[in-house]
Amino acid sequence: MHEPDRSIHTPRRMANTGKIEKAQLHVPDLAELCQVLQSGLNKNYSDVKVSVVDCPDLTQDPFGFPVKGLCGQPRITDVGGVPYLIPVAQLDKVYNMNTVSKEVELPGGFFLGAGAVSRKTTGMNAELMPLVLTEAEERPAVNASYFSSINPVDEKCLLEKYSDRFNDCDFGLLANLYACEGNPGQVIEVRACVRTGEESLVSSMRKTMEEHYGEKSVALGGTFVLQKGKAKIHIMPREFSACPLNTNEEVNNWLKHFEVSAPLIFQTVMVSKDPGLDLRVEHTHGFSHHGEGGHYYIDTTPDTAEYLGYFLPAEFVYRIDRPTETHDIGRD
After folding, report:
1. Torsion sign over Cα 24, 25, 26, 28
2. What pLDDT is recorded for position 329?
3. How far apart are the first and last CA of the chain?
């Protein structure tokens, strides 16, 4: 596979979303990456198997994605950022998946990941689980996304299909997205059972790559299922904080935390090393078919946790509308 171009490409601008920066990523051979991940995950789980496989048909259960696979010109993008949410939300930060698809030079591409809804569309704040096949000349967009909010009736999780309520492909404030053509092909399959360490599946994978690849930036995107056990998640309140959130403690007190049950289908983006673009190095959201979903932290049942995931390394990262004033608060 090709070696990275360490330079960051000349920024360009497109309507409404500000500056776009692009950097090439290191793309390891899949067999090599399997060995790296196998070794690292063995330190965090008692039973691990990482292998190269043909991507399963993701239109089938439990995924229900609008495309069959994760292959074809894989890339990631970090849009907006946490500084647009906290300390004070900047509600004018609204983005559109169809526009982003052109900005990452993949019009008509498939996007998955983690983000926030647009308040201008939804009238509230909520967690977004993007699953969007963006529009192309011969077809309209297919928005299979989910979003979770705090139910005003009982203060519990309310998970809904985005297209049941709204007709656009907008999102707000921030998103971490993996994009590809949605084709079948070879991917990395990760099976991990019984957590023995302190790291989540995503953190364990990301830190393993960071340790092995050092200064090279390797990014993975994809989906995984918590097949057994429970997980800790958060959901942002429907209303943005009336007071500025200036510390991680204040952010955690504002968020609503829940324990949710398998099976849970997660979408994730992770980067081993930020190549100087102020990236959120890991971000994972998930949904279920039993009404639960949100921002993933870690499983809460290590003795019974069972994961099955599919991932692919990205070739490029695109940084869209990077905040000029930044901080590290609220990036967990």
Report:
1. negative
2. 87
3. 32
Residues 87-101 have pLDDT tens digits of 999 999 999 999 999
Distance of alpha carbon 314 from alpha carbon 75, whole angstroms: 4
How would you classify the pairing of strands 94-96 and 75-80? unpaired
Could you report the per-residue pLDDT of 204-235, keeping only the tens digit for each? 999 999 999 999 999 999 999 999 999 999 99
- The secondary structure of 135-198 as a DSSP string is -BTTB--EE--EEEEE-TTTSSEEEEEHHHH----EEEEEEEEEEE--B--EEEEEEEEEE-SS
The one-letter amino acid at 51: S
Residues 6 or more apart whose CB falls under 8 angstroms from that of 252 comprise: none
Q: What residues form DSSP beta bridges with 195? A: 45
Other beta carbons within 10 angstroms of residue 300's beta carbon come to 15
Question: Token match 């500084």: residue?
Answer: 83
- The answer to whether residues 151 and 200 touch, using CB atoms and an 8 Å cutoff, is no
- For residue 210, the one-letter residue type is E
What is the C-alpha to C-alpha distance for residues 25 and 198, in angstroms, rounded to an integer?
28
